[in-house]
Amino acid sequence: MKHLLLFFLLLGTFRLQAQSERYSIKATVTDTLGEALPYATTMLLHPVDSTLVTFGRTDEKGVLEFRNLKRESYLLKVNYVGYIPYQVRVNPPDGNLADLGQIRLYELNKDLMEVVVKTARAPLSIRGDTVEYNASSFKVPPGSTVEDLLRRLPGVQVDQAGNITAQGQSVRRVTVDGKRFFGDDPKAATRNLPAEAIDKVQVYDSKTDEARLTGVDDGTREKTVNLALKDSHKRGGFGKATVGVGTDHRAQGKLNYNRFDDKTQFAVIGMGNNVNQTGVSGDDYNDFRGSQAATWRGGQFGFGASYERSDDIEVNWGGNRDRGFSKNWAGGVNYNYETPKTKFGSYYFFNQTRQTQDAFTERENFLEQLRYRSADQNSRISRNQNHRTFIRFEKQIDSLNTVVIDNQIRLANGYNNYSGVLSYYGNKDLQTRSETRNTSDFNTFAISTSLLYNRKFEKKGRSWAVSALHSLNDSDEDADQFARNTFYRESLDDSLYILDQRNRTGSLNNRIRLGTMFIEPLASKVFLEGFYNFSVSTTDVEREVFDKIEQREIRNDFLTRAYDNTFYSNRGGFRLRYTSKGFNISGGLAGQHYGLKANFSEYGMTGQTKLSRRYFSLIPNLTISNQFTTNFRAYLGYSPYMDLPSITDLQPIVDYSNPLFIREGNPDLKPITVHTGYFSINYFNPGSFLGLFLYGNVYYQDNAVVYAQTVDENLVTYTRPVNVSGARNYNISSQITYPIIKTKLILKVGTGIQQGYSLTPINGVNNATRTRSFPTGGGIDLTPGPAFSLFTNVRWNSSRTKYSINTSQNQRINNLNVDAESNIRLMENFLLNATFRYMQFVNDRQGIDLKQPILNMALYKIMLKNNKGEVRLTAFDIFNRNQGIRVYTSQNFTSREQITTLGRYFMLSLTYNMRGISSKPKNNQMMIIY
Q1: Does the residue 496 lie in any domain?
Q2: What is the three-state SS of 761-823?
């Protein structure tokens, strides 16, 4: 008992001593008349280097208070919009409280234009719903990119793939001085611009283009990051050039150059390597054929619009860019010009990828009373080349009239060579074997032009808009197919089927869209919106198939076909919206009419098969959003839409081009109706950086198009699209970000639940697949100072999959992913960077337990005058464990694929940084640094 009492006495002594070594700062912020200034931004800085210690805001009475501070000297910074920033040095008091009394801020007016105010610059300021970071207050190593800078900003996270999350929401757009940079791909700016060029980083919620043009707030927000450049980089050129050579004949080169001023932006980027770094976003891969031209959304107003299906030829560009071996080239030029009434944006982008893959895939398929597996050993060689241009012109004719013109052009070409051996096994015996050699070449040209005119009226809130779009997509493919298929039978003789064909396919798609919208204010807070949209699309496809027999090509009349179709739609409706002080509620009803006319013909036939379909549906819409406070927003919505089956699924033709996988169309398909509901709750305190986020969605499908399967005794699969209702899915996720130590240690925790249900007819029996998963994760961001940083993220997911036709295949899958990145300053101008990724996949039923640790480390030295040079030695995949393994579960099968890919290698690289020129303030110009 005495020992316990002594322990508590000592503990109390230590606590009193610790408290005596700490103190608090308190003050009241007012204007020159003594009126309190509530919610002013307050910061404590280190006097030596002005790095941020902590920050906050005054309360509604203008009181600021910092507690539990180390007994050190600080710079106290107070910032309030429209007032001169205030700074004072605070030394430790004799007691536990430094009471500064009343701090008076002076209004910023014209009388001060001759004054030069030099104070320590505020690391952060808050203006309404915009959080503005002073980039120079968040130290990063020389040569760092904007992406490295963003990782250090409180409330901003960047994963290893470069995806940005700010205040709990995904960032969809990054602008530079308010202008787009190479379109809307955020990574184009964050990975190509140097951190030293950035003066401020501004994070805010931007309105939609429709709300911006019409002037009526629709309650929808898009998280945006704007990078404000330093004056020095607005007046001169800056950029970076890197070259590197490595083991196993690896090499890379990168270049970017930028030249900006108040009105214009000019940027050039380029790269080339053979280390599987494409340097472009994932969307660029969808653009290889230009097929995205058929889904550009110009000419669409109101709600209920769906992405209309494109019927371009299907060309596989040749594999996943993360695996195999690839040689990549890419480059682009971006030019923007902007004045208060004129905005012009443009870019040209080119990329080329040549990729080789050697893959082995094992797949287990199961039916109601049968289970069989397949083994596929294959190789691919592909090359894809893509040119893309974009021009956007926006002109504000006057305060009431605005015109926007967009033009996009894409050119793509390439080839894909495939060879492989596919074997099917039933009861451990070989039943079918297919040896395949396929080659294809494709070319695509696509162009789209859209026009938008918006007219505001003298009556506030009244506006009218009209939009038009024309797009053209011209594609052709030349393919050779060879397959030797052997069917092994127990009671009959083995049979052999050889396919040797050439396919030539041409496709031409034209689309026109017209739309109009009128908004009428019924009261100061009530608006009526009416809209109408018309769309017509025509597609002409010719496919010629030739059988190769004794070195001759003979037309296959059964597979040769031509078809044309015309798709048109009319969609009109109204929506009533109430908006007041951040609260928005809208409800509406639209009617949608679809029509489809098609003609099919096979070579040699005297007539044509005609197809005509008409559909009509009513589409309700409801959205509710409320901005409770500047920091707290909630959103709720319900919006169904209708979509048509593709013309490929509707055409009543059997496709025997693959003897092991035979497809048949279904002209009796009905349109698909998708019911979607979603909600989100977002709380973020820009003073404490505490964030709470909750998100959920649910969808249900009527007449979903699924592919019914029939598998015969030779394990040949016949598929036919059919309508099935009942597919549904819901997802609820949550995340908390908690600053344990402001600006130094951030904790992130998240969890959720996902559940899905789908039906697929297999051999006449509906297979119901149910999945349920519980994703959970967390991580920490540790940035105690410029010499060290650590960013970690852990994601764990346990999912269960159940099948109705064969419950013995039910399985539980566990996934674990760990990501970590650290930067350490070892000594003067010597730095160490390390990235680590650990992936584990466990499936007990299949006996799979895959573990894959990937570690990359780089040691580099900053050199030359003004830190313009860098030499770096990098070791990639030190453990040599990049195995390129993927495991996939769906419907009635599970598969495991492994692709030979790039493993361990070392690279030595040199980097030269081009700096912007300095800029001095003009005479008699006030300079306020804060």
Answers
A1: no
A2: EECCEEEEEEEEEEEEEEEEEEEEECCEEEEEEEEEEEEEEEECCCHHHCEEEEEEEEEEEEE
Reading the block at residue 488, the tokens are 């092994």
Q: What residues pair up with 895 in beta bridges, in sequence order?
A: 363, 888
Q: What is the pLDDT of residues 453-479, one digit of tens each?
A: 999 998 888 999 999 999 999 999 999
- Quick check: 30 and 83 in contact, CB under 8 A? no
How many of the other CB atoms lie within 10 Å of CB of 52? 22
Listed in order, strand segments (DSSP E) in 32-139 are 41-45, 52-57, 63-70, 74-79, 86-90, 97-105, 117-118, 124-127, 130-134
- The parent domain of residue 746 ranges over 727-899
The answer to whether residue 838 sits within a structural domain is yes
DSSP 183-215: TT-HHHHHTTSBGGGEEEEEEEEEEPHHHHHH-
CB 269 within 8 A of CB 331: yes
Give domain status of residue 103, yes or no: yes
**Percent of the chain clearing pLDDT 70 (strictly above):** 85
What tokens were used for 158? Answer: 């960047």
Among 102, 119, 136, the domain boundary falls at 119
Terminal Cα distance for the chain, rounded? 59
Q: Are 464 and 455 contacting, i.e. CB atoms less than 8 angstroms apart?
A: yes
Place of tokens 């052997």: 486
Q: How far apart are CA 687 and CA 692, in angstroms?
A: 14
Tokens for 356? 């080789």
**Above 90 in pLDDT, residue 589?**
yes
Q: Are 325 and 382 in contact (CB under 8 A)?
A: no
The yes-or-no verdict on residue 751 having pLDDT over 90 is yes
CA-based radius of gyration for the chain? 32
Residue from 736, 758, 756, 757 nearest 747 by CA: 736
How far apart, in whole angstroms, are the C-alpha atoms of residue 477 and residue 410? 16
Residue 311 makes CB contacts below 8 A (sequence gap 6+) with 507, 509, 539, 541, 565, 646, 647, 648
d(CA 222, CA 226): 12
Structural tokens at position 22: 């700490």
**Nearest-5° Cα angle at 429, 427 to 430:** 130
Q: Which of 279, 275, 277, 276 is nearest to 250 (CA)?
A: 275
- Provide the whole-model pTM: 0.78
Q: Establish how many alpha carbons lie within 13 A of residue 180's alpha carbon, considering only the half-sphere containing its beta carbon.
A: 18
CATH number reported for the structural domain that contains residue 34 in this entry? 2.60.40.10
Count other Cβ atoms within 10 Å, centred on residue 283. Answer: 11
Last residue of a domain, one of 119, 146, 173: 119
Give the sign of the dihedral formed by CA 25, CA 31, CA 34, CA 38. negative
The DSSP line for 402-463 is: EEEEEEEEEEEEEEEEEEEEEEEEETTEEEEEEEEEEEEEEEEEEEEEEEEEEEE-SSTT-E
Is the residue at 449 inside a domain? Answer: no
Cα–Cα distance for residue pair 195/145, rounded to 1 Å: 5
Cα–Cα dist 909/240, whole Å? 13
Give me the number of domains the chain comprises: 2
3-state percent helix, strand, coil for the chain, nearest multiple of 5: 10, 65, 30
Dig out the tokens for 769 from the structure: 């697949």
* H helical segments located in 132-269: 146-151, 186-190, 209-214, 231-234
3-state secondary structure of 291: helix
Q: Centre a 10 Å sphere on the Cβ of residue 583 and count the other Cβ atoms it contains.
A: 14
Q: What is the chain's length? A: 930
Please tell me the number of Cα atoms within 13 Å of 289 on its side-chain side: 26
User: Residue 424 corresponds to which amino acid?
Assistant: Y
Considering only 257-271, 453-467, 481-495, 540-554, which range has the smallest mean pLDDT?
481-495
- Residue type for 60, please? E
Dist. CA 591–CA 30, nearest whole Å: 58
